[in-house]
Amino acid sequence: MKSLYEEYTGDCEAGSHVYGKPASYSHFCETFNVESNSMKVRLTRDSGSFVVCPCCNSYKLSLRRARTLRERARIKYFRTKHLQKQRAQREKYYKHRRKAIQNPKKYLSIIIDGMDQKKTNCPNLGGQTTKDEAPLKTRIIGVKVHGIRNYAYIADETVPGGGNLILEVLRLTLNDLQNREELPSEDPVLYLQIDNCGENKNKVMFSFLTDLVRRGIFSKVKAGFLMVGHTHEDIDQLFSTIAHYFKAYKTCCADPESLAEEIRNAFTDAKHKPTVVLLHPKQIFDYKKLYAAVLDPKIKQ
């Protein structure tokens, strides 16, 4: 709880108290217990099912083994530096998000992420899959366009993953925004927030983003990647709503089509209801082949 409280106070101070002044440690613990009990959330040991930050894990273990106050103070100093770094990246994302909401004619802020696949495989019965047969692996890729709308793209295992899939999701989103006349028009800037993995961080992705600038669609594009183990953001609320609905209402999703329908039903507020799109393998463009001739083989890491 101490480490959670330290990160909480750090977030409050980094945001110049936009989120209020930090509560006392005792009040923080009391509120945490009340809220976690009502939401049926509990702290657990790492079971390997979530991507965790190796640095945070290392500092945590080192603190447990530290024998002197001086040693603990030294470890805490480096852990604080690490948390400040990830917090600075997060604050940058929040800044981009605010700019897009306040000035939609100039800025566009998009975050793309994938939902936990175990909760979306078909057939899906109230958040659970059958054990008799192997389920149809089904991915939900969420897109949040800040201040405008949400999207949920559904791809089953016949649709190959990788950079081509993520770029197709981005292209379809930009096309839809263009058709609705919701793209910025005054020296437009795109802020793209994506997960820190090879599917997003690759030469093809940066070729596509460069192409957007060279074609004059945006005057500038900024891509942001949060640190591994610190990537949970506002788009996770979209996935949480879907997962909770599946579990609470014992929905029956026999196939991707019914899954799409239930995703729409999970949102009662029209403002947050996502536009749901079913993806098919023949619809995915081969961006790797498109940019193969212009990729620099010397660019690595």
Describe the structure.
- This protein is of the alpha/beta class and 301 residues long.
- It has two domains: 2-35 and 49-92, no CATH class; 105-294, Nucleotidyltransferase, domain 5 (2-Layer Sandwich).
- It has nine helices and nine strands.
- Helix 6 links the parallel strand 6 (189-194) and strand 7.
- The radius of gyration is 21 Å and the shape is globular.
- The protein starts with a helix and ends in an 11-residue tail after the last helix.
Brief characterization of the structure:
The chain is of the alpha/beta class and 301 residues long. Helices cover 43% and strands 15% of the residues. The protein folds into 2 domains: 2-35 and 49-92, no CATH class; 105-294, Nucleotidyltransferase, domain 5 (2-Layer Sandwich).
Write out key terms for the chains shown.
301 residues, alpha/beta, Nucleotidyltransferase, domain 5, six-stranded mixed beta sheet, three-stranded antiparallel beta sheet, 9 helices
In total, how many beta strands?
9
CATH superfamily of the largest domain: Ribonuclease H-like superfamily/Ribonuclease H
> Rg to the nearest angstrom?
21 Å
- The N- and C-terminal alpha carbons lie at a distance of 36 Å
The class by helix and strand makeup works out as alpha/beta
- Give, in order, the helices and strands: HHHHEEEEEHEHEHEHEH
What fraction strand? 5-15%
Q: What is the helix tally?
A: 9
Q: Major sheet: order of its strands?
A: 7-6-1-4-5-9
Specify the biggest β-sheet. Answer: 6 strands, mixed
According to CATH, what is the class of the largest domain?
A: Alpha Beta
pLDDT averaged over residues = 84
Number of domains: 2
**Contiguous runs where pLDDT drops below 50 for at least 5 residues:** none
| Helical content class | 40-55%
CATH topology assignment of the largest domain? Nucleotidyltransferase, domain 5
The best one-word shape is: globular
CATH architecture of the largest domain: 2-Layer Sandwich
